[in-house]
Amino acid sequence: HEASTGSGSGASIVGIFTAPRSAAPMQPHAVVTLVAGAGIVGDRYANKTGSYSGLCLSARTPGEREPGRQLTLISADAIDTALSLAGYPLPASYGEFRRNVVVRGYTATELLAAQGTELALGANCRVFVHRHCVPCFYNERACGRPGQLRAIFQSSGVSCEILVGGVLSVDDVVKPTPYASPGQNTKQDIGTQPPGYFTIPTERTAAMITGANKQMTETLFAMMRRDPAGAFRPEAAYNSVGLKFW
To answer: CA torsion sign, 131 to 149 to 80 to 71?
Structure first.
């Protein structure tokens, strides 16, 4: 008996991307190696050099990084639909959206509905989908598409923990695992995100904005004491496109 989340059939990987560090260009791969509890070999989040690697926002294990930073997954179908509705042409590369694994065969709704469940990637790899991987203004500016964040908000993919590693290839099948799979019992961790994090910015309330600003200030002070380099990485990335992070 398979979990009903997602399409469960006909879904496959059409792209795999990694970047060695924050803001570095995403590189396509035909084959990569996933490491359980860490990430994709060579990727910034496995190397702990991603823009958000220094954020220790796990709700499951306070003081640790979110497990969902290990691998991100996005639907090419969802991106195609969202961009078309917004009047934009299809992307030259799905790596523009800075997600690791790109699949076809899942709608945006199906992929978001996979939160809290385990997916099989290929014959051996297993990931647990923790949360919606919301888009950012850095990527909107880097892609040169005004309004992109709002356009793709519900189509921007999900953040996953790697439960079982192994070799992953383009054309591998993606499907839900059976309910009896041990990975389905993983405790979901959406992190201790700022208020309004999962809400489109223009729809956030005054209370959300005030709460988020307070949490961001507290987070910055904590990071400057614990990991100054980690605090500077997202700021440098945002500065590179004319924005500020903190």
So the answer is: negative
